[in-house]
Amino acid sequence: xxxxxxxxxxxxxxxxxxxxxxxxxxxxxxxxxxxxxxxxxxxxxxxxxxxxxxxxxxxxxxxxxxxxxxxxxxxxxxxxxxxxxxxxxxxxxxxxxxxxxxxxxxxxxxxxxxxxxxxxxxxxxxxxxxxxxxxxxxxxxxxxxxxxxxxxxxxxxxxxxxxxxxxxxxxxxxxxxxxxxxxxxxxxxxxxxxxxxxxxxxxxxxxxxxxxxxxxxxxxxxxxxxxxxxxxxxxxxxxxxxxxxxxxxxxxxxxxxxxxxxxxxxxxxxxxxxxxxxxxxxxxx
Length: 285
Prior knowledge:
By secondary structure, the protein is α+β, with helices and mostly antiparallel strands. Helix content is 27%, strand content 24%. It has a domain of 170 residues.
């Protein structure tokens, strides 16, 4: 039979000195873990308290980034419908035979194949309205899709202790349902406040022709189409220090000129037939 080695070499077990040393070591380990946890918690709370305003700014700018990156318009891949010409193309003749979408305040224009073009409005440099694909249904079978109307604007802060040097706050309207309604009714919607203590906010839009940012959508060479947005934000913290931020956001849609594509199809209509012949099996079904 194999002999088992005892845990202790002494027949009487651990000595009192060994037990005291073990308890002392365990006590120091417990104190180290306690102080490490306490310091981490206090440090996180202190950093959060001291940088709370900056964290709110970053959260608001991150929300702008998510909304702007998914701005939607069919003009990214379709050409806007122009005036009827005497020699209309085959596509224009075919689409004219179908009932056309009636333009409204929300969809003021159409593409060549009668797809509605959502409005992009900026009545002042500090407000912006557009259609985005950022929405996600939170309730099953809700009458919503990934499309949502979003409006940003500045208003006078409702906080009684607002800073007189930065009296504005940024609010966000969110309309995920009934996106094809004829007009907007923001009075029935309660906006969410993204950021307070704002001194100035500007939305600037990239003009590819002039290679610069402009503050008026009417100065854009193509209406109802935005490629990039520049946000200029000025805020004031609790110590009355002015903080300035400049961010540029662009749509995730790749660059494509539908006008050149339409002109190419009119010059070489056989190219469209060749494209259909080169489609993978099952694409026509």
